[in-house]
Amino acid sequence: MTTLTQKNTVPASDSGGKKWLSFLADYSTIIFFVLMLAVAGILSDKFFTIANITNVLRQSAPLGIIALGMLFVILTGGIDLSVGSMMALVSVVVALLMPNFGLLLSLFAGVSIATIIGSISGGLVSYFRIAPFIATLAMMTIARGIAQIVTKGQPVFIDHAGFKSFGEGYFLGLPLPVYVFIAFAILAHIIYKKTTFGRLVISIGSNETATRFAGIRVERYKFAVYALSGLACGIGGIIATSRTGVGSPVMSESFELDAIAAVVVGGASLAGGRGNVFNTVIGVLILGVISNLMNLMKISGNYQQVVKGLIIILAVLLESLKSKK
């Protein structure tokens, strides 16, 4: 009996250490974000100006919307590499249609095309059992190729004051695109937390076989998350285009990597089943702060890519810590 009691006794110091590690693992995304803000404020006296903060939020809005769509795909254990190409295709479709068909119809067409492409990826993954990496890589190439073909590789300038004013406009001190980001985040949170769909998406990522044995038609839900990702790309592509006023076939190259990075930095597991909307939003803001800080410090884009890669590695290591806990 004495031996058994000694065996089960945990030293107070070890217990405290485990609690501290548990705290770090649970709140690592928020802690890292706060540290990044502190570092940014120290390194640049321009960072905490109102103009710069609103600029960070405006630039983060398209990535935030795309990352939230990507989150649901990753929760199922999938991945979507076509998001950047879909945004480019949306931008050129909107730019080409707007002169003849007007603002609303061109915007509807852009969102619809992105949703259709996402649905095709979802169909290939769920019903034809093609690996998500391969299916979305194919759609990435196809969408970018179509964008290049219809524009002959040239940018298409948009001459619509109302459309461009949305990307540059403000309401109550916040850029208009930020309100779209906030609305999409609220909607994503409701779907994630309050609906059967959200719970089943997590269940599929956690244990697809068990979910299937429970009588759930897994294919429908996997199809739906890729369609949702396409919808997010349509909205994000329109916002990005409204900021530049140009439909470009080379828009958002490598954007899929930023979206995946934001979700991973937010603590989601690439194996599926773990992640949440709030942390994904924080992950987006972390990447936005890092990019903005390096721009303020006049650090080239090549170095920025290296830093983002290191951040992804750090995020994966922290995710491993959570899994061990």
TrEMBL record:
It comes from the Bacteria. One of its GO terms (cellular component) is plasma membrane. Pfam families: BPD_transp_2. The chain crosses the membrane at residues 20-43, 64-97, 103-125, 130-150, 170-192, 223-242, 278-297. Keywords: Cell inner membrane, Cell membrane, Membrane, Transmembrane, Transmembrane helix, Transport. InterPro entries: ABC_transp_permease. Signal peptide: none annotated. It is found in: Cell inner membrane. GO terms for molecular function: transmembrane transporter activity. It is a multi-pass membrane protein. The keyword Cell inner membrane applies. Its main location: membrane. The keyword ATP-binding does not apply. Belongs to the binding-protein-dependent transport system permease family. AraH/RbsC subfamily. PANTHER family: ABC TRANSPORTER PERMEASE PROTEIN YPHD-RELATED, ABC TRANSPORTER PERMEASE PROTEIN YPHD-RELATED-RELATED. This is Monosaccharide ABC transporter membrane protein, CUT2 family (TC 3.A.1.2.-).
